[in-house]
Specification:
alpha+beta, 1 helix, 17% strand, elongated
Length: 156
């Protein structure tokens, strides 16, 4: 008489594996979202610094930060740099809109702004700012007002 060997998984074993995968997904997904938000924010910070360098080159040739935006205006989308971040990717993948927020003191100071795109993972995480005097700000509570404790890109 020959014996048949039955192989495979029981229903209980399968349910245990599914439960373990569910627990890992529950813990891992929020960490993944935080990681992608931080990566996007870091790219926007780097692009703001590159835009600031482009503005310095503009000032070296024009003796003013004025008229560095599109249509030779002082504010808005920059004409001297990409208008989105990450600037090393296609515009369809943009996470932030870059803009020259203000030019003051007769073209001798500026502020730059990176605004999260509404369809991106960083949509409600607040805008990033960079100022001509080197100050950095992150509007963490997304209220369009920079409080005293928000003058930092890495502070939490």
């Amino acid at each position: 008489m020959s014996s048949l060997k039955v192989t495979g998984f029981s229903l209980i074993e399968l349910m245990v594996v599914i439960a373990i995968i569910g627990i890992i997904a529950t813990v891992g997904f929020p960490n993944y979202q935080t990681f992608t938000q931080n990566a996007g924010r870091a790219a926007a910070q780097a692009d703001l610094m590159s835009l600031a360098a482009a503005l310095e080159r503009h000032r070296a040739s024009q003796f003013s930060y004025a008229k560095a935006a599109s249509d030779s205006t002082d504010t808005g989308a920059p004409a001297i740099f990409h208008a989105y971040s990450p600037s090393n990717e296609a515009a369809a993948n943009k996470l932030y809109e870059l803009s020259i927020n203000s030019v003051g003191s007769q073209g001798q100071t500026y502020s730059l702004k990176a605004t999260p795109v509404s369809s991106a993972a960083n949509a409600n995480t607040g805008a990033l700012y960079y100022f001509s005097d080197g100050r950095q700000a992150w509007d963490r509570n997304n209220d369009d007002v920079i409080a005293g404790d928000e003058y930092c890109w890495q502070c939490d």
